[in-house]
Amino acid sequence: MHTLPFLFGAATWWSAMIDQPPVRPAAAAQPLCVDAAAFLTTDRHMAVVVEPDTLDDWRTKQRLTGCRITAAGGTVRGVQPEAVAFYERVRAVGWVRTPDPYDAPSEASLRFRMGKADCLFNVYGDAMLMTDAEDRVDLARALAPGETRYHAYVMCLPVMPAAPRER
Fold first, then answer.
1. Cα–Cα–Cα angle for 130, 132, 137, nearest 5°?
2. 9, 51, 69, 147: most buried by Cβ count inside 10 Å?
3. Dmax over Cα atoms in the chain, in whole Å?
4. How far apart are alpha carbons 116 and 160 in whole angstroms?
């Protein structure tokens, strides 16, 4: 008899989770993330959560106010081929590589610039951030038959020159 309250609580939690919108209105409140969020939702058909963030930027060696995007999508080609296609599309829709990007190509992270935003895009497979945002986008983006889950994590900062590299 004690399972009934648990089941009701779980059903209430599940209902609250699936009622979350796949695209957060916060994207408009985070101007640096608007273009990246639009790309992820319209071109890549991903569910996104946009949040404000303060980031330690190793490129400028400053702590900057920006935003982050957590996104989930599905692919039929596999995560690694999808990551290659993802970055090809980033370029095709008008993003350009940030000068002196200081990004991590061996970790599938690449920095691109559009307008007043420098955004570091990271494409990865299974959920690994273990955040509420990652849970929400996973629930918001159902997989079609034959699709594999993949994610993107994007950090956007204001366009600034790179700090001199130490020798």
1. 95
2. 69
3. 68
4. 9
The per-residue pLDDT for range 96-111, each reduced to its tens digit, is: 999 988 876 666 699 9
Contacts of 153 (CB under 8 A, 6+ apart): 68, 69, 70, 71, 121, 122, 124, 129
From 90, 114, 112, select the one nearest 101 (Cα to Cα): 112
SS3 126: coil
The mean pLDDT of the chain is 85
Q: Order of strands across the sheet with 148-158?
A: 47-57, 62-75, 148-158, 117-124, 109-114, 96-97
Element (H, E) at 86: helix 79-92
pLDDT of residue 150: 98
